[in-house]
Amino acid sequence: MSATLEGRCLCGDVSITLSDWTPEISACHCRLCRCAGGGLMAGFDAPAEAVTVRGEVRRFRATDFAERAFCPRCGTNLWLRDDDGDYELSPGLFEAAGRFPLIREVYADCAQRFARLAGDHPRISRAEYESHHKHVETDR
Ligand SMILES: [Zn+2]
Ligand SMILES: [Zn+2]
């Protein structure tokens, strides 16, 4: 694995450098991710101290425990982050992330028909997920 991973938004105003990350993709089909991501959101984790961001970023809080960040110029999704948690970065920003395996889908039973993903990775239902994690009562 190379020492850093470099990514950028569509317009290039925001660039992100990672010095550490977990090369595994999770996908989420909850209502918030469906809406924000055009049908679903995918992400991979990096610890906060390993993330360097250059450029102006806007943040939106769809819940009281997490932020979603995007480029104010081109609107590209950058990350989702629980307060004080790891960054969950958008794989599309990083060329190398195209080779990361999909290891999990959450809210799998809420997926829009077109967004059902192939593979034999674990598929976690809304009920399973919400029994173990913070969530909002707005899905469906
Ligand atoms: Zn941009
Ligand atoms: Zn979600």
UniProtKB/TrEMBL annotation:
Keywords: Lyase, Metal-binding, Zinc. It holds the Pfam family GFA. PROSITE patterns: CENP_V_GFA. Residues 5-108 form the CENP-V/GFA domain. Belongs to the Gfa family. This is GFA family protein. The lineage of its organism: Bacteria, Pseudomonadati, Pseudomonadota, Alphaproteobacteria, Rhodobacterales.
